[in-house]
């Protein structure tokens, strides 16, 4: 079970530290003995990575993630950040293919794949985000779109590297809208993604793939979503900015994890 908070372009320096500290202070109590079954990550804005890195306890499954990365090592790429730079400040994780980067910033499947491959090659764990828009869902293209994004995102990724990949299914229509995919809708796509990974690699790879759900995950819907057989975690936006809400989602993850095999 992997609960990651994507803070997006939110917080300020003080809030970032207060938020991380607030979650860390109560983490042990909400994990309630399930600490070995639940991983947690914070993905703050770039400029606060160093501050948040300084707060993370050693020896706990709490990771620092970057919301973005570039695929070159260094050079004239104004505004970009390399894998080495991210590792240098304590990141072990990156997001790739987030719908806001696909649809607002305009990143292509090809660019996303370059980021995925470079990050994996340099030892970072990657959360590859996929998901259809409302128009695509209405046109019955949900499976096609997610298949294309998974295949393109994982192109050139080796079977060994796959252990460092998490897929986040984030239907674009559910992000930041307060509209959540129903547990059944989410489960259906998660099962499809798992068999897709099994088809691209092998059954064991499909079984082992961690697949998070993202899109208006809140304390009141987390347990039911995370209890679905193919949902292995959550990528949380808005609710990860509130200490109590994020802790409640982590607690739901711990409960769901304890009830799964
Ligand atoms: P919300 O939880 O705010 O809908 O955002 C989801 C998301 O995009 C996480 O990456």
Q: What are the key terms here?
A:
261 residues; alpha/beta; TIM Barrel; eight-stranded parallel beta barrel; 15% strand; binds 1,3-dihydroxyacetonephosphate
3D structure, described in words:
The protein is α/β, with parallel strands linked by helices. The protein contains eleven helices and eight strands. The chain has a single domain, classed as TIM Barrel (Alpha-Beta Barrel). An eight-stranded parallel beta barrel has the order 1-2-3-4-5-6-7-8, surrounded by five helices. Strand 1, helix 1 and strand 2 form a beta-alpha-beta unit. The protein starts with a strand and ends with a helix. The mean pLDDT is 96. The structure holds 1,3-dihydroxyacetonephosphate. The site of 1,3-dihydroxyacetonephosphate (13P) has 14 residues, from strand 8.
The percent of residues in helical segments reads 40-55%
Number of strands: 8
Q: How many domain units?
A: 1
The name of the CATH topology is TIM Barrel
Given helix and strand content, the structural type is alpha/beta
Placed side by side, the strands forming the largest sheet appear as: 1-2-3-4-5-6-7-8
Gross geometry: globular
Instruction: Round the Cα radius of gyration to an integer and report it.
Output: 17 Å
Bound molecules: 1,3-dihydroxyacetonephosphate
CATH level-4 homologous superfamily? Aldolase class I
Strand % is 5-15%
SSE map:
Layout: E1 2-6, H1 13-31, E2 39-43, H2 49-53, E3 62-66, H3 83-88, E4 93-96, H4 99-105, H5 109-121, E5 125-130, H6 134-138, H7 142-154, E6 165-169, H8 183-200, H9 203-208, E7 210-214, H10 219-226, E8 233-236, H11 243-259
Parallel strand pairs: 1-2, 1-8, 2-3, 3-4, 4-5, 5-6, 6-7, 7-8
Bound molecules: 1,3-dihydroxyacetonephosphate (13P).
The site of 1,3-dihydroxyacetonephosphate has 14 residues, from strand 8.
């Amino acid at each position: 079970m992997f609960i990651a908070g994507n803070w997006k372009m939110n917080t300020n320096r003080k809030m970032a530290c207060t938020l991380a500290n607030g979650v860390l202070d109560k983490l042990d109590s909400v994990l309630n003995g399930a600490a070995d079954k639940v991983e947690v990550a914070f993905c703050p804005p770039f400029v606060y990575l160093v501050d948040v890195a300084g707060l993370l306890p050693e020896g706990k499954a709490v990771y620092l993630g970057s919301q973005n990365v570039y695929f070159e090592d260094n050079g004239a790429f104004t505004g970009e950040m390399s894998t080495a730079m991210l590792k240098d400040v304590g990141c072990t994780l990156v997001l790739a293919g987030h719908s806001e980067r696909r649809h607002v910033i305009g990143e292509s499947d090809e660019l996303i794949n370059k980021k995925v491959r470079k990050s994996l090659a340099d030892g970072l764990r990657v959360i590859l985000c996929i998901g259809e828009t409302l128009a695509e869902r209405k046109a019955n293209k949900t499976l096609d779109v997610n298949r294309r994004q998974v295949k393109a995102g994982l192109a050139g990724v080796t079977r060994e590297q796959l252990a460092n990949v998490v897929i986040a299914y984030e239907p674009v229509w559910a992000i930041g809208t307060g509209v959540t995919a129903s547990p059944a809708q989410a489960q259906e796509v998660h099962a499809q993604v798992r068999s897709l990974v099994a088809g691209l690699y092998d059954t064991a790879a499909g079984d082992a793939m961690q697949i998070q759900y993202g899109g208006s995950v809140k304390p009141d819907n987390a347990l039911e979503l995370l209890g679905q057989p193919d949902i292995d975690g959550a990528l949380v936006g808005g609710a990860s900015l509130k200490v109590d809400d994020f802790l409640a989602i982590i607690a739901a993850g711990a409960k769901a994890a304890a009830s799964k095999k």
